[in-house]
Amino acid sequence: MPSSVMSTPKSADSPQSHPAIAANGLRKSYGDKTVLDGIDLTVPEGTVFALLGPNGAGKTTAVKILSTLITPDGGQARIAGHDLATHPHKVRATIGVTGQFSAVDGLITGEENMLLMADLHHLPPQEGRRITAELLARFDLTDAAKKPASTYSGGMKRRLDIAMTLVGAPRVIFLDEPTTGLDPRSRHNMWQIIRELVTGGVTVFLTTQYLEEADQLADRIAVLHNGKIAAEGTAEQLKRLIPGGHVRLRFSDPDAYQSAASTLVEVTRDDDSLALRIPSDGSQRELRSILDWLDSAGIEADELTVHTPDLDDVFFALTGPDRPNQSTEAAR
Ligand SMILES: Nc1ncnc2c1ncn2[C@@H]1O[C@H](COP(=O)(O)OP(=O)(O)OP(=O)(O)O)[C@@H](O)[C@H]1O
């Protein structure tokens, strides 16, 4: 059942009334290397948050801290309202973690891996077998259930890993680079699985190096660079941070085209296709002013399209080697 139709009352102190993840000033160093230099994160319940960053940026370190595997040197975080430092056991009961440190044991079968997980969660045997069968079917692993997990493909192992995580019915799931090394079909299957988890009300915190993945899945994206969040926002907000965005007006009437071209400032003309390109951040305000101007000049364009830079452009602009560290909050 989607969480939005649940009508359970939420008291001010209940964990449900808190963001799924709220972190403040998280810091972590190894020796003299500062990996996280004070990062703040807020992830609302039932959303997907993507932490993007180049190799070694500190994504796994952030996941390990938030999932209680390591302690930060500074800062605080709460998962579903539970403080990491004072109630780590409550945090662990709320979360699931899969990723680079997979829990799958290759020597036993997929089914045995699942049953072992059910045991770890102290489920009664019958319930454990029921959930195992249900999850194996859901992740398309029923046929492979009796085979050793070492014989599974990369995609099957990731699916088994997530199925094992779901045995404990976590409300918040950390996925550390869930599709690294998967072929395109398996990657798309994994995206579908993640979308279904979120439809069921689960919050997903994922790390990825794939910009398309963040673009496809995440409600909000943070780019980690030099230990800080270099930018945070929706994919669209991030794309507006860097130049290159424009509005394209296309005309079929040459007179309308000429009249628009001669009165609009800062336009680039494309006389062959009767199209004009106007620099724009694609914001509602700028679009409105272009439309107002067209209306007041009595000019009708046949087509108006907004072009924003893609996430690759943003990523490279924000994490390039020469980029000084700066904190940019995209449209709060
Ligand atoms: N236990 C450790 N001891 C010393 N240095 C560490 C340790 N764990 C991580 N690091 C260093 O911290 C930095 C961040 O590592 P982390 O694994 O968090 O990065 P990442 O963004 O997940 O990278 P990748 O995409 O390559 O997995 C790296 O320079 C790494 O070498």
From TrEMBL:
Residue ranges of every copy of the ABC transporter domain listed in the record: 21-251
Membrane topology: Peripheral membrane protein
Keywords in alphabetical order: Antibiotic resistance, ATP-binding, Cell membrane, Membrane, Nucleotide-binding, Translocase, Transport
Composition skew (Polar residues), residue ranges: 1-17
UniProt cross-references to InterPro entries, sorted A to Z: AAA+_ATPase, ABC_transporter-like_ATP-bd, ABC_transporter-like_CS, ABC_transporter_ATP-binding, DrrA, P-loop_NTPase
Regions crossing the membrane: none
Region annotation Disordered: where it falls in the sequence: 1-20
Subcellular compartments: Cell membrane
Entry similarity comment: Belongs to the ABC transporter superfamily. Drug exporter-1 (DrugE1) (TC 3.A.1.105) family.
Protein's name in the database: ATP-binding cassette domain-containing protein
GO MF annotations in UniProt: ATP binding
SMART domains referenced in this protein's UniProt entry, alphabetically: AAA
Organism of this sequence: Streptomyces wedmorensis
UniProt cross-references to Gene3D superfamilies, sorted A to Z: P-loop containing nucleotide triphosphate hydrolases (3.40.50.300)
